[in-house]
């Protein structure tokens, strides 16, 4: 869908609250190999075709296995003209087709910006119910930040010289920590392939993949206590994940990891850091607030189980 990429990215960024560039989108298309199911609505004119609506149905690791995430967005000029209704019909037809093959989704998830009540109302009229609220926030990296303060004996390392054993160790810890987040509580543990796709994504620089490591012991080089991951986005850096093992919490490790990521991003000339947090993740929201993250519009996730 290279020809429609600009319109697709513009509309899906609006619907999802992202800042994805066309270049990054196309790179992701090549990386994924098999693209999700998509439909694009266009209008013609003297200047050529213009994308006025998009729809997508895809698997997503933050919703239950067997479910699909639906994205449907229409430009303001395309509303009230039947574009959204046609796209919704196309999504419904694809779901019914999958059900006919025995591979139909067990449920659907949609997102709506929390400053867009019309989109939420649209979803609720179709039987979707609120499942989660996530807050987006942004930190201006042009402002000075304090350096990280580590508890006695704790040091930071990254994955620039990681061995295969190091990557396996990280992937196991990452999968364990994901299950302790509000986003994935009660859901299946990520597969090794899912974790590997996240931590080894080309946007996730090894020097931005940080580990808080305890003091060396006679048995080894020290327990890994927490992880912080930064990925490249078009506006700068995205703090993808920060988490600390239960036994190491209460020492300020999450704050120290984030400040180390801030320091490295600033050294690389990055001027902005973004992140998202589940509304139930009060400790991390408090850490971000104290660091000076500015709230942006959040996202509501609504679910509907299918018969």
The biggest sheet, with number of strands, parallel, antiparallel or mixed sense and barrel status, is: 12 strands, mixed
What is the string of helix and strand elements? HHEEEHEHEEHHEEEHEHEE
The fraction of residues in strands falls at 25-35%
Helix content: 25-40%
Q: What general outline do the C-alpha atoms trace?
A: globular
Quickly count the helices: 8
Any low-confidence stretches, pLDDT <50, length ≥5? none
Number of strands: 12
Mean pLDDT: 89
Q: From the coordinates shown, what is the CATH architecture of the largest domain?
A: 3-Layer(aba) Sandwich
Q: From the 3D structure, determine the CATH topology of the largest domain.
A: Aminopeptidase
Relevant CATH superfamily of the largest domain: Gcn5-related N-acetyltransferase (GNAT)
Taking Cα atoms only, what radius of gyration do you get, to the nearest Å?
21 Å
Helix/sheet category: alpha+beta
Top-tier CATH class of the largest domain: Alpha Beta
Give the domain tally: 2
Pfam family, one: Acetyltransf_1
Organism: Deinococcus aquiradiocola
GO molecular function: acyltransferase activity, transferring groups other than amino-acyl groups
Keywords: Acyltransferase, Transferase
């Amino acid at each position: 869908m290279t020809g429609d990429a600009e319109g697709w990215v513009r509309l899906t960024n609006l619907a999802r609250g992202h800042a994805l560039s066309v270049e990054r989108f196309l790179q992701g298309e090549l990386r994924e190999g098999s693209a999700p199911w998509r439909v694009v609505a266009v209008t013609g004119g003297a200047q050529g075709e213009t994308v006025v609506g998009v729809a997508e149905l895809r698997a997503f690791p933050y919703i239950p296995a067997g479910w699909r995430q639906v994205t449907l967005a229409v430009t303001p000029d395309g509303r009230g003209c039947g574009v959204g209704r046609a796209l919704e019909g196309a999504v419904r037809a694809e779901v019914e087709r999958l059900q006919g093959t025995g591979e139909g989704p067990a449920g659907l998830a949609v997102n709506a910006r929390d400053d867009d009540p019309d989109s939420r109302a649209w979803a609720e009229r179709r039987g979707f119910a609120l499942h989660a609220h996530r807050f987006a926030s942004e930190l201006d990296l042009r402002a000075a930040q304090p350096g990280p303060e580590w508890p006695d004996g704790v040091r930071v390392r990254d994955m620039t010289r990681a061995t295969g054993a190091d990557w396996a160790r990280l992937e196991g810890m990452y999968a364990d920590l994901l299950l302790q987040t509000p986003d994935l509580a009660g859901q299946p543990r990520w597969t090794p392939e899912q974790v590997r796709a996240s931590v080894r994504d080309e946007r996730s620089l090894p020097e931005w993949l940080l580990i808080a490591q305890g003091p060396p012991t006679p048995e080894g080089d020290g327990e890994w206590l927490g992880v912080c991951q930064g990925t490249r986005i078009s506006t700068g850096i995205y703090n993808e994940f920060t988490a600390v093992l239960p036994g190491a919490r209460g020492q300020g490790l999450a704050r120290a990891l984030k400040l180390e990521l801030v320091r490295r991003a600033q050294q690389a000339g990055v001027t902005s850091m973004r992140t998202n947090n589940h509304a139930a993740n009060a400790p991390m929201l408090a850490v971000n607030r104290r660091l000076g993250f500015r709230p942006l519009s959040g996202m509501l996730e609504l679910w509907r189980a299918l018969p």
